[in-house]
Amino acid sequence: MSDLLVTLATIFILAAVLLVATNRFPIPAVPVYIVAGLVLPPLVGDDLTLELAQWGIAFLVFIFGVNVEPGRFRTIAKDSEHVAAAQLVIVGGAALAVALGVGLETLDAAYFAIAAALSSSLVGQSLFRREIYLNLVHGRLVQSIHFIQDLFAIAVLLVLSAAVFTLDGVALKLGYGVILLATAVLFRVYAFDWLVKLSGDNDELIILSGIGLLIAFIGSSVAFEVSIAVGAFAAGLAVTRDFPNNLALLSGLDSLNTFFSAIFFVTLGSLVTIPATTTALLEVVLIAGLLTLFVVFVKPLVMVVLLLRRGYETRTACLTSFTLDQVSEFALIIAIQALLLERISEPVFQAIILASAITMITSAATKQYDETLSRIVARADVFSSSHEQLRTRSRVDSDLTDHVVIIGYGILGSRIAAVCDDLGIDVVVIDHDPAQLSRVRAEREYYVFGDAMVEDTLQLANVSESRLVYSTTADRILSDTLLSRVRDPDVIVRAKNTDEALELFEAGATYVAVPDLLASERLLEVIRELSAADGDTTQLRQREIAHLREATTVLRERGRGFVPMSKVMSEDTRADE
């Protein structure tokens, strides 16, 4: 116990010192943790570090499972399945062929291919937190692709858990995995709400219930003699964030995420070791270099091509792909388990660890410059077919002028469009969410199905000839882009807070909507109405109930059924016919 406490204290002291030293620079925490781990080995034992890494991964996998809400990305689920499966086959197959070509043994080559094909859901979700929170298309794509890859990784872990690679042994482990996942899904659907009600909305009980589920599923995985990561992932799926008064659970998960992120990434850095001989060092560097090449360049390129073939525009394809350019934590679990079972050679294991540390650092750098990189790809016009797709899915008169351009056709966008219709003003809707295309085509005369961050989209909407551009999304990057490119018409954008709103006003915005501020002003109006109503609140209640029912109807229409990009493309074909 004392060794464990000393190790944890050392990890957090090293991490804290480096975080304080780099606090003034825009450096993400993950690279700092990994660098801190490089100086950890002389201070702690290897066996304890390896065990801490596994437990750190398990808890982070649990948190990722909790954060997965399948309903958020059901509109692009079919696209994600096809793209993720094709990427695993193409990248994994190519990596396997290269590994065998450079002389690796078959089993080592398989581990190399797995590390090349899988991406880190933990790093990806951390880097793409804003996009996921805003429910952007590429944020949903990233989360769903990671989820599918993790399911594949769990299947691999279950296969490798077999004591011997026989049909019966592998089938038994896969059966255990199915039992754990099925139990988690059933608990999520039928029992979790009951558990929340039983807790009486007590914050501590809800948090402890989640931790209790984690311990129960990990205990089951130990009893089944499969990786604890499988049980942790299943436990995450058993918990849903979609219930009233979930703030305590989310706060508790954020604290756990911070705690175990430091443990995992510091221990990851500590696992990077320098071989004793020059020959061994060169072998590790060569294998790690090849793996890094596949992860940083080949995998994103393949993903971009696959997403473009599914009909997504260049920017969405690039932003999605750039968040997949790191080695997965599941690949690390698989490598560690293989090392403990003596199924992987030391050079390949060290190469996977080294490549993981390198790509998790470079991935943070890629995220900082992803918009710039996507613009470079778009300007290179390598994928010219995306421009043709933009025009095929759009309908705007080239001589349209004095119109209003609305970016985003959700509740707010559709209501603004209705007001413009009442005033007799032409409207052009810009949206690139596959879930919205059918509705936009049915309701609007003019529309552009594309990304408003792309210059071609704005040109096709005749933005320069419009009277007003209204962005319904509180996306700062989009707002800054519009204010820098749109000169003549008025521009209305949204902001998350008053400080951001003032900055957008200074950048040239005609008006900035702050939802919290507008909501508070509306609440004050309601209070004044109640004060003047002399106890008769019937009219106020009826009006607000009708308003909420209208909004609920729109929300249900937006979330109805699967609308993958493949269906959008088939609709385009029928429209052309």
From TrEMBL:
Domain of life: Archaea
GO CC annotation terms, alphabetical: membrane
Primary location group: membrane
GO annotation terms (biological process): potassium ion transport; proton transmembrane transport
Pfam families in UniProt: Na_H_Exchanger, TrkA_N
Record-level Gene Ontology MF annotations: antiporter activity
Domain RCK N-terminal intervals: 404-515
Record-annotated membrane-spanning stretches: 53-71, 83-103, 148-167, 173-193, 205-238, 258-277, 284-307
PANTHER family per UniProt: CONSERVED INTEGRAL MEMBRANE TRANSPORT PROTEIN-RELATED, SODIUM/HYDROGEN EXCHANGER FAMILY/TRKA DOMAIN PROTEIN
Similarity comment text for this entry: Belongs to the monovalent cation:proton antiporter 2 (CPA2) transporter (TC 2.A.37) family.
Name recorded for this polypeptide: Kef-type K+ transport system, membrane component
Protein source organism: Natronococcus occultus SP4
